[in-house]
Amino acid sequence: MQPSNSGDVRYDDPWYDALASGWGEQAGAGVPPPRREPGAARSADVYLEVQRSAAFQEVRSRYRRFVVPAVVVFLAWYVAYVVTATTAPDLMARPVAGAVNLGMLAGLGQFLTTFLFTWAYVRHARLRRDRAALELRWDTQELARERGGAS
């Protein structure tokens, strides 16, 4: 069958994705059942065991202790900038040096704080989490190998 402007489309056409989106298919038709490998349950147990471990919880708490306050501070700074720019335009238009005004400096401050927070996050991760996360990764792989769930 040749494609035409009347809506005829060949199913082997790579641009035809109606079946991929599920349109026009019956529920469950042609969908293969999920494969269950023998070691899958054992490896899932390994990951659940690691997730419940004190070391994993410590890595997550270190992450949260940094990220949550950082996000709150950054969003507060951003909202303060936007609210000040919209409610006090005279303040933001106050000249600082030549054509540079307070609004421009605050906008550049947004970029500066983005870079500072990125640097602080990378430093925190390198100093406080990366080594522990790498040890967890090795422990997880060893446990999975011992139980026959991974190679």
TrEMBL record:
<dbReference type="Pfam" id="PF04341">
    <property type="entry name" value="DUF485"/>
</dbReference>
<feature type="transmembrane region" description="Helical">
    <location>
        <begin position="96"/>
        <end position="122"/>
    </location>
</feature>
<keyword id="KW-1133">Transmembrane helix</keyword>
<dbReference type="InterPro" id="IPR007436">
    <property type="entry name" value="DUF485"/>
</dbReference>
<protein>
    <submittedName>
        <fullName>Uncharacterized membrane protein (DUF485 family)</fullName>
    </submittedName>
</protein>
<feature type="transmembrane region" description="Helical">
    <location>
        <begin position="66"/>
        <end position="84"/>
    </location>
</feature>
<keyword id="KW-0812">Transmembrane</keyword>
<keyword id="KW-0472">Membrane</keyword>
